[in-house]
């Protein structure tokens, strides 16, 4: 009987600045739980929030951070595939936070799954 592949959630943040055709280097996280993935996105949004100068940008971010029902919906959405939060600031900077469900593949050297082939000559 085959074992199901373990699920993880890969999250990352990136930024696109006006006048640049490249995205800025981002940060990322790999976690086994969708709740932790959304918590990481929310903490990363808080870091960006601290540097926002425009009051309307700050109000939109604060409204999203205060909406705990939306956070629960985000966790459920992530369990079915992926979740994205976009922030387009008044200065033209586009922030993007994404989380995707990914599957980890077992290693070929996992104990007990494959017979020991050490000391044998390979067949060509």
Distance between the termini: 30 Å
Strand content: 25-35%
| Largest sheet strand order | 2-1-4-3
Q: From N to C, what is the helix and strand string?
A: EEHHHEE
Unreliable spans are: none
Care to describe what's here?
The chain has 124 residues and is of the alpha+beta class. It has one domain. 33% of the residues lie in helices and 29% in strands. The protein has a 4-stranded antiparallel sheet with strand order 2-1-4-3. Helix 1 packs antiparallel against helix 2. The longest helix has 17 residues. The mean pLDDT is 82.
Search tags:
globular, alpha+beta, four-stranded antiparallel beta sheet, 124 residues, 33% helix
Secondary structure layout:
Blueprint lengths: L6 E10 L6 E9 L2 H17 L4 H12 L1 H12 L2 E7 L5 E10 L21
Antiparallel strand pairs: 1-2, 1-4, 3-4
Helix pairs in contact: 1-2, 1-3
């Amino acid at each position: 009987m085959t074992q199901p592949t373990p699920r993880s959630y890969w999250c990352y943040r990136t930024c696109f600045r006006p006048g640049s055709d490249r995205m800025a280097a981002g940060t990322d996280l790999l976690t086994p739980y969708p709740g932790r993935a959304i918590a990481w996105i929310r903490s990363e949004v808080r870091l960006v929030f601290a540097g926002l100068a425009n009051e309307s940008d700050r109000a939109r971010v604060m409204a999203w951070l205060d909406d705990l029902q939306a956070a629960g919906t985000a966790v459920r959405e992530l369990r079915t595939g992926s979740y994205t939060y976009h922030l387009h600031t008044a200065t033209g900077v586009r922030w993007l936070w994404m989380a995707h469900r990914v599957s980890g593949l077992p290693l070929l050297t996992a104990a007990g799954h494959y017979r020991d082939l050490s000391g044998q000559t390979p067949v060509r």
